[in-house]
Amino acid sequence: MPKNRSARKVIHLMEKLVLWLIVIATIYAIGEEIYIVAINRTVSVGDLLLMFIYLEVLAMVHFFFESGKVPVRMPLYIAIVALARYLILDMKNMDDWRIITVSVAGLILAVTVFIIRIGHIKFPYPKMGEADD
Predict the structure, then answer these.
(1) Do 56 and 34 meet the contact criterion of CB atoms below 8 Å apart?
(2) Cα separation, 58 vs 78, whole angstroms
(3) pLDDT for 68-120, tens place per residue?
(4) Within 13 A of 15's CA, how many CA atoms are on the CB side?
(5) pTM for the whole thing?
(6) What is the DSSP track for 66-132?
(7) Distances (CA, A) of 122 to 107, 116, 118, 125
(8) Spatial distance between the Cα atoms of 129 and 123, rounded to a whole number of angstroms
């Protein structure tokens, strides 16, 4: 089936292109954040958390380049850090219910990561070549 094979090749090339665009955009965003920190001559917890989010995005892209898979946990980690950053930066402007809601959302994400991790330990993925495709 040459059409199927060529379609897969095009999709694979598009994946690589988009991944490289994500890497370039993330590196640009990191550079922009470092520039802002240098201009302001101060580093806040929000700045550090934002750079940590960028680092997680790069790690996720790296993992995808190496394995061809994106583990569900990585975007969840990014979401948890993003919620923590949101709380830290905007807590003064939030009412009590919004703070509780964002905190509960972070807790739900953390519990989800824990459940997924337990699932991977109790029910590991089959090794390459063992899976029935």
Answers:
(1) no
(2) 11
(3) 887 788 999 999 999 999 999 998 999 999 999 999 999 999 999 999 999 88
(4) 15
(5) 0.78
(6) HHS---THHHHHHHHHHHHHHHHHHGGG--HHHHHHHHHHHHHHHHHHHHHHHHHHHSPPPPTTTS-
(7) 22, 10, 6, 10
(8) 17
